[in-house]
Amino acid sequence: MRTILLLSTFFLVVTSLRAQQTVCFYLQDGVEVLDFAGPMEVFSNAGFKVFTVSRKKDPITAQGILKIVPDYSIDDAPPADILAFFGGNAGAAAKDDAVIAWIKQRRPATQYFFSVCTGAFIMGKAGLLDSLSATTYHSYIGALQEALPKTRVLANVRYIDNGHVITTAGISAGIDGALHLVAKLKGEAAAKEVAAAMEYESWAPDKGLVLAGN
């Protein structure tokens, strides 16, 4: 009987590990701290496995103040359910052919794409926003529309959910978008628990634009 119980426990643990959803945070040198730190807090509190990736494994500096050693480079990063991009020197990543090729290669195996602030430029360069609606930091709305003529760029919205592609406005809006994605995958009650744990009292489920097809 004890052997059966041990085996049952083992299989439950294995099943739980397999079911744990993963989030890949692509971080470029100069990335905005709160752009990624807020969503990272959300996803980790919600039980997702979060890991960081950069162009190389060399340390990067976020916002000129925070040293970060990426978990992986684009050469050895494992697949993930969610692939996320952030503002702060996002143009460097958007102009890097190797990074864009890596994103395109991961597209078939990635369930959701998520951006905060000017991270939308990176997703747009990879073609992920073609024929979709998107948003970004308020000062870059015009620039994003100019860069992505195939995309409908909207201002004055915290996040836009196209189904499998979610973009958010700047900085703190990334927290709202991340909570929305948690609610989408794990239920609104789970998202509210995370918001309460973070003492993020301003979150409201209806702050964003959720388009048809969700």
From TrEMBL:
Keyword Transcription appears in the UniProt entry: no
Keyword Signal: yes
Signal sequence interval, chain numbering: 1-19
Pfam family, one: DJ-1_PfpI
Keyword terms, alphabetized: Signal
SUPFAM superfamilies: Class I glutamine amidotransferase-like
InterPro entries according to UniProt: Class_I_gatase-like (IPR029062), DJ-1/PfpI (IPR002818), INH-QAR (IPR052158)
Domain of life: Bacteria
PANTHER family given in the database record: ARAC-FAMILY TRANSCRIPTIONAL REGULATOR, DJ-1_PFPI DOMAIN-CONTAINING PROTEIN
UniProt protein name: AraC family transcriptional regulator
Organism for this UniProt entry: Puia dinghuensis
Organism phylogeny: Bacteria, Pseudomonadati, Bacteroidota, Chitinophagia, Chitinophagales
